[in-house]
Amino acid sequence: MRSGKSSMAAHFADQTCASGKRCLYVLFEESPAQAIRNMRSIGINLTRHVRSGLLQLEAWRPTQSGLEMHLLRIHKLAERYKPEVVIIDPVTNLMLGNTNEVHAMLMRLIDFLKTKQITAFFTALTQGSKALEHTDLRISSLIDTWLLVRDMELNGERNRCIYVLKSRGMAHSNQVREFVMTNKGIRLIPIYLGAGTVLTGSARLNQEARERAEETARQQEAKEKRKALEGKRKALEARVAALQAEYAEEEKLIMQSAEREQQRERVLARDIADMTRLRGSKQVRKGQGA
Prior knowledge:
The chain is α/β, with parallel strands linked by helices. The chain folds into two domains: about 5-155, 3-Layer(aba) Sandwich (Rossmann fold); about 205-270. The chain is about 50% helix and about 20% strand. It has six helices and ten strands, in the order αβααβαβαβββββββα. The strands form three sheets. Strands 2-1-3-4 form a four-stranded parallel beta sheet, with helices on both faces. Helix 4 (about 65-80) packs parallel to helix 5. Mean pLDDT is about 80; it is low at about 130-135.
């Protein structure tokens, strides 16, 4: 199924060369110039790797020669160029003759690349009606890691998805990931679950929009509740302040009243003392006169 296999291959080539490794890229569908132009539209610049000598682009027509000649040319290029990665896009274009012959040729190629410790990246077209565990070339058992790129139709649209069908000898994810083509390359979309199902494309965007609206409504409601609570707090603080002021005023009046009472008692005590002295002195004078 046509879902971005060449873009994936170009990404692999770009990252290989970006890490300083040599890559042999064999094209069976388009010319080097066409491949470079097409990949530039998604932000992959293969020209710089060609100029640096890290990327060798070869474009052949499947009908240009027989299977044995294709195999021989790949062998000679690998021996001369000594790449660390070989990409063939796609191997299914070699299915021009007997399937058994194609299968045998690819087995020999894979054995050769493994012997040379060269990483191989093959792309292949599969029919939508075929079982996932089956390829037209019957080489699935020879492949260590198998990535399946396919279109998924949902809600009247087609979205690109990728997942690991198998990866021999290593742990791998079983998630189906949506990806999009951007002007900065292929971008994986984060897994998004809505109502217990994985959503892609516009369904994912609509669900995200609904949840953002719901979250905004919840935040607004919480904001209004906090505002109402703040109003109650201020009203309570104002009431407490008024009660404290009333208490302070009443306390002041009571203290003033107590102070006046104490003043009256002091005045009365002084008056009594003065009167006592006066009476005492009068009695003395009367005694002297007698």
